[in-house]
Amino acid sequence: MTDSRPARRPKRRGPKRSGGPPAPKDPARRVAYDVLSAVESRSAYANLLLPSLLRERGIAGRDAALATELTYGALRMQGTYDAILDACVDRSLRSVDTAVLPLLRMGAHQLLSTNIPDHAAVSATVDLARRTVGQHRARFANAVLRRVSARDLEAWLEIVAPQAEADPVGHLAVLHSHPRWVIEAFAAALGEEITVDMPETRRLLAAHNERPQVTLAAKPGRAEVDDLVAQGAERARYSPFAAYLPEGDPAALPVVRQRRAGVQDEASQLVTLALTRVRLKGEDARWLDACAGPGGKATLLGGLAGQRGARLLAAELQPARAGLVAGAVDRTINDAARVVVADSTRPPWRAGAFDRVLVDAPCTGLGSLRRRPESRWRRSAESVPELVDAQRALLRSALDSTRRGGVVAYVTCSPHLAETSGVVEAITSERDDAVVLRAADHLPEVPDVASGNFLQFWPHRHGTDAMFLALLRRQ
């Protein structure tokens, strides 16, 4: 292959047990398999299920670290491993039992991207297969994984990745484990043509396969960043509410256990902050979060509203998610937040009722692939138009819900142009009462984030999710 590839990542050794082979029940691999199987069979979210199972089964320390590595490693590199596994089965990988696929991906990750010895990786995975899918399918897994172990990752990529000159997107799809349509969408958002040389697109794809740092948010009025720093976190680069946790479980920090701080991406904090920084003439007492679940932005907005003597209404369509919002904003300063179950496209409140409105619209989630790697396999290009229709409806209703002179923040955790600038431009073209503000003026502390009048965060530039922000004033 003539195209350059990223340097091979050093193999990371999974946490080792002392005193010989794994314990018979191998709790780390079992919990990783259970999570991967749930993701495959019922579209579970690993970032929610894995911590829950670790707590439920009392798994901590090295076993928890190994389970996390196997789960997220297999999910992040699923596209790459599937291309390799497909070359190692006698029939198409699509015909393989979905109960066996998670085992094969776990085994491939151990063989190709960790320092676990090949014989131990194969033996432990096959032993788990016997206990979960039966002897017959365990023999199949054994045969496939032994074929995988015949080459290292670099050698396999020479075989299974398309030539970059002939198929640059297909090459990157195997190399960095992303669907083709997602790579094309990222290249368009970054302003790069589809060629062999797409340096920034490559950097973004590589960033999605790195483990993200944990970012904490101090809830305004209840905690300060100094409280997080005093408990081992590091002050963040941009957000005045954020701190990075270098290692360990966030729940181990007293300030998090006391619900005075929580986990929240820094870009998520910053787009929320930008809305509160826009100057308004006249009243500034009524704020709305129109799509509040699961509650991170609502918590920050509620705290800031309370400090200003304003009140926040947090609306969420799904009752279960509304419950999460209620738990997140509980006891915000001065009881400034109220949560309701409501469809913001058919609002129960009167038109022009709010001074500031946040629309964190449902989207493809392509901006959070570092933390939710399985999301890249959940959506397809065909799902985008339906989401865009919903996003336009929400932004249209948000403007109607805002008083003259008020401001709307339109936010998506996706850089896809159809979901970002495309939505804003479509709505502003159909009405004459909305003007787009220059969003970068309200976050001057963040470099290289402006995209015309909009803001676009990037993992490879800012170390955050790829969050988009547009600010609109209703005239």
Automatic annotation (TrEMBL):
PROSITE patterns membership: NOL1_NOP2_SUN, SAM_MT_RSMB_NOP
Family: Belongs to the class I-like SAM-binding methyltransferase superfamily. RsmB/NOP family.
UniProt KW RNA-binding keyword: yes
UniProt biased composition (Basic residues): 7-16
Record-linked CDD domains: AdoMet_MTases
Keyword Protein transport carried by entry: no
Active site: C413
InterPro entries for this protein: MeTrfase_RsmB-F_NOP2_cat (IPR049560), MeTrfase_RsmB-F_NOP2_dom (IPR001678), NusB-like_sf (IPR035926), NusB_RsmB_TIM44 (IPR006027), RCMT (IPR023267), RsmB/NOL1/NOP2-like_CS (IPR018314), SAM-dependent_MTases_sf (IPR029063)
Domain SAM-dependent MTase RsmB/NOP-type: 190-475
PANTHER family tied to this protein: NOP2 YEAST -RELATED NOL1/NOP2/FMU SUN DOMAIN-CONTAINING, RIBOSOMAL RNA SMALL SUBUNIT METHYLTRANSFERASE B-RELATED
Name this protein carries in UniProt: Transcription antitermination factor NusB
Binding residues annotated for S-adenosyl-L-methionine, in chain numbering: C291, A292, G293, P294, G295, G296, K297, E316, D343, D360
Pfam family, one: NusB
Location of the region described as Disordered in the Swiss-Prot/TrEMBL record: 1-29
